[in-house]
């Protein structure tokens, strides 16, 4: 498992309070915290370092491209608009599957680990600003967006082009369609005629790009025609040939070389998804939050190596995640009993059950500290930020009742 240690970066000060500061990058990670607490700071760093690891494995960049001329800060972190988050005492350490990385003010050190088999992910960052994509028309003519949003637009356009039949967006019975001739997105549903996505409600505008990109990338990973060296860039094909030639020239470790040659395509063709979603609940009614969350869990469960990282302000997202973790434990005890599984399916879809042992749920406080709010039994602690906010509201309501009683005296 990869892990990251962050101190004094943007709003993050102390960082993770356990495990010597190393935050494990679990299969599923959820971050909660107030506005500006540092949720996006953490997930954008994870996204950046995961991408750099992937690029180093493919040799599309070199270690010097990261370490020289302040490139890590000025170039790679600028892509996610976190280059101004660095301080004089910022410290970042990333222990990945294939690289070790350490940043201090004085140095940037990167080591690529030797491996017979490298397997890279398809990294997806779906920002909170995704609604903006839904109000655009003639998508393929849009230019000049911020880099991260521009990348999401590219994947969104690919997804729009890829569906020959309307796509369910998992809200009621609403379906998404893209007219390739006029380059415009539409929605349709029971009880209303076809409507431009740009004229839809804010919740649907938030969900549509998320579901289109997620469905497209799931299909992309599994599609041997799309996910092939024929569709790789010229630089990637050149790098593939260079590494293949090096392996074929080696005279030592022949069995190891044979294995490396056999698995070389996995070094260039994504084998699993690494997905980050900001504010998954954005503009959604609680029932819709549940549907979108459970669908995202299903996508994440599609492959063992998939990763999903979510930021949220919603207590419902935390409650539904707790439900999905409990459902996983219940499923283990059903002994594949059909009737019991059917009852479970009506509560949490079997494909959406979440293994609590592969799940991290973290809160970031106002002092820039990160700590787990999941108990050893896989339950979410009651004293988390969102629950406390609800309890505060109840306390204030009780105070109002006290005042109301005094008014009646």
Summed up, the domain count is 2
Average pLDDT, all residues: 90
Helix content: 40-55%
Numbering strands along the chain, what is their spatial order in the largest sheet? Answer: 2-16-15-4-14-13-8
Number of helices: 12
Oligomer: single chain
The overall strand count is 16
Folded structure, characterized:
The protein contains twelve helices and 16 strands. A hairpin with a 3-residue loop joins β5 (86-95) and β6. A seven-stranded mixed beta sheet has the order 2-16-15-4-14-13-8, sandwiched between helices. It has a five-stranded antiparallel beta sheet with strand order 3-1-5-6-7, covered by helices on one side. It has helices at 39-58, 64-67, 71-76, 131-135, 147-162, 202-222, 234-249, 254-262, 286-301, 315-332, 338-347, 385-407, and strands at 3-9, 15-16, 23-24, 28-33, 86-95, 99-103, 108-112, 121-126, 167-168, 175-179, 184-189, 192-196, 272-277, 307-312, 359-364, 369-372. It folds into two domains: 3-120 and 271-393, no CATH class; 126-222, no CATH class. It is 40% helix and 20% strand. The chain is globular. By secondary structure, the protein is an alpha/beta fold.
Task: Present the secondary structure layout.
Blueprint: E1 3-9, E2 15-16, E3 23-24, E4 28-33, H1 39-58, H2 64-67, H3 71-76, E5 86-95, E6 99-103, E7 108-112, E8 121-126, H4 131-135, H5 147-162, E9 167-168, E10 175-179, E11 184-189, E12 192-196, H6 202-222, H7 234-249, H8 254-262, E13 272-277, H9 286-301, E14 307-312, H10 315-332, H11 338-347, E15 359-364, E16 369-372, H12 385-407
Helix pairs in contact: 5-6, 9-10
């Amino acid at each position: 498992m990869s892990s990251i240690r962050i101190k004094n970066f943007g709003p993050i000060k102390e960082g993770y309070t356990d495990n010597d500061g190393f935050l494990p990058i679990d299969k599923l990670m959820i971050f909660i915290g107030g506005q500006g607490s540092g949720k996006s700071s953490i997930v954008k760093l994870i996204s950046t370092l995961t991408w750099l690891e992937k690029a180093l494995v493919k040799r599309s960049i070199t270690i010097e491209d990261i370490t020289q001329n302040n490139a890590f800060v000025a170039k790679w972190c600028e892509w996610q608009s976190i280059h101004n988050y660095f301080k004089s005492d910022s410290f970042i350490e990333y222990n990945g599957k294939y690289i070790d990385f350490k940043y201090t003010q004085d140095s940037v050190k990167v080591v690529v680990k030797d491996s017979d088999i490298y397997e890279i992910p398809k990294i997806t960052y779906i920002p909170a600003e995704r609604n903006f994509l839904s109000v655009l028309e003639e998508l393929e003519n849009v230019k000049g967006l911020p880099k991260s949003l521009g990348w999401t637009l590219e994947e969104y356009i690919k997804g729009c082009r890829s569906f020959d039949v309307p796509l369910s967006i998992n809200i009621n019975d609403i379906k998404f369609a893209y007219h390739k001739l006029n380059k415009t997105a539409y929605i349709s549903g029971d009880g209303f005629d076809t409507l431009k996505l740009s004229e839809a409600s804010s919740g649907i505008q938030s969900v549509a790009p998320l579901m289109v990109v997620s469905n497209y990338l799931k299909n992309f990973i599994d599609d041997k025609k799309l996910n092939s060296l024929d569709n790789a860039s010229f630089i990637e094909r050149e790098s593939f040939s260079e590494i293949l030639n090096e392996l074929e020239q080696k005279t030592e470790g022949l069995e190891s070389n044979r294995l490396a040659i056999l698995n070389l395509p996995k070094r260039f063709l994504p084998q699993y998804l690494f997905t980050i979603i900001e504010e998954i609940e954005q503009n959604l009614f609680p029932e819709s939050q549940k549907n979108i969350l459970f669908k995202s869990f299903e996508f994440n469960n599609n492959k063992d190596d998939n990763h999903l990282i979510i930021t949220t302000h919603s207590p419902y997202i935390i409650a539904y995640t707790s439900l999905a973790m409990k459902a996983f434990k219940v499923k283990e005890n059903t002994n594949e009993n059909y009737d019991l599984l059917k009852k479970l399916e009506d509560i949490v879809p079997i494909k959406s059950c979440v293994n609590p042992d592969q799940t991290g749920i973290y809160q970031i406080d106002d002092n820039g500290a990160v700590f787990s709010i999941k108990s050893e039994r896989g339950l979410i602690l009651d004293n988390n930020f969102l629950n406390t906010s609800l309890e505060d509201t109840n306390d204030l309501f009780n105070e109002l009742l006290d005042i109301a009683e005094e008014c009646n005296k």
